[in-house]
């Protein structure tokens, strides 16, 4: 089970800030994102592009590290006790 934290507008749209996601070990970050969107479909308009790719308007971190700075990017495998954080590029103060 991993912990998912939603920040800014994502928290408001989903109506939750933190939840656990039960996924098999070694599930990729990309597949975890799909499962999150299946659970919270209102996030699709923020997270996905028209062609189904991940939008530039969502910043994803695995254990505090930007997903795009990791070698495997969205193919990064997740493990129990990992943490996924989702931030919108602009969050009000």
List keywords for this structure.
alpha+beta, Ubiquitin-like (UB roll), 3 helices, 5 strands
Account of the protein in words:
By secondary structure, the protein is an alpha+beta fold. The chain has one domain (2-87): Ubiquitin-like (UB roll) (Roll), CATH 3.10.20. It is 23% helix and 22% strand. A five-stranded mixed β-sheet has the order 2-1-5-3-4. Strand 3 and strand 4 form a beta hairpin. The longest helix is centred in the middle third of the chain and has 11 residues, at 29-39. It starts with a strand and ends in a 6-residue tail after the last strand. The model has no long low-confidence stretch (mean pLDDT 94).
